[in-house]
Design goal:
mainly beta, eleven-stranded antiparallel beta sheet, two-stranded antiparallel ribbon, about 10% helix
Length: about 260
Amino acid sequence: MKWNVTVVFFFTTFTLSLAGHSQKTQSTDYYKAIRNADVSKCWYNDEDQPQNDSSMAAIPEPLGFIGENYQRFYIHFISVKKNKAKPYQYKVTGKTRVKGNVCRFTGMINIVKAELFKEKVDGKYTRGILESEILFYEDSLHPETGVIKGKLTSKFYLDENNQAWYDDLEVGADGFSNNQCEAVWTSYKTQKSKKCNWGDYRIPQSKALDSGDGEFAVDKKYDLFGWKNYRIAWTADPWKNGTGQARDSEKRHWWE
C-alpha cells in the first residue's frame, strides 16, 4: 500500500488558555534540540507523571470516533519507545477496539515540528507543543482491520531537569484537551477510508458528537454507535441507578 500525503503545519502563533484567559505566547524552535530528548512520556506514562496542584495520576485513555456516524473508537498504547537509529521516530505498540472487535497494532510516531513557549509557568515549567505524523498497522490477519495514518498534536512541558512530560498543568480547566489526533483509517480488504480521530478529554472535529461546553458530553442520539455506556457513566445523573456500573465498565482495561 502506498501513501502520498502532504501535511502543512502553520506555527506562526499559538494560543494558550491560562487560568481561563486566552493569550498569544511567543515561541521558539525546539526541533533540533528534541532529537536528543526522550518525549515518549508525552504519549505513554503509567505511573510516574509528576504531581502538582492540578495534575492527574496518569495519562487518560483517549476518546475517539470512526466513520460518519461517529462510531466510538478506542485506542490504547501498550508501549512507546524512541528509535535510537532515528531520533525523531518513536515505535508504538497497542490495541484498537470498535464495538467488540479488539485488534493489536504496531507503528510509529514521527515528530515533524517542535516549539517551546518563552513564558514559564509557575516560574519553573517551560511549555511546548509537538506536531507528529502517525502510521499504525493493525493486524492484517484480524477481520475488519486496516492502516491508520494522520497527524498528532501534543502539548508537553519541561521540568527543571529538562525532562519532557505530558502537559496536564491545566487538566481541570474548561475545554482542556491534549494529544489531538486527526487521522484516516483505510481497510486492508476494501481500500475504503474513514475518518478516525481521537484525543484526551476532547476529540478534534467532533462538534456534531460533542455537545459539551466545559467538558466532553455526548447526546443520546449516539447511543446506538457505542456511546450509551459513556453517556450514562459521565453525563447522566451520578445518583441514577446504573451509573456506578457504567463507570466501572468505562474504567475496565479492555486491552488486557
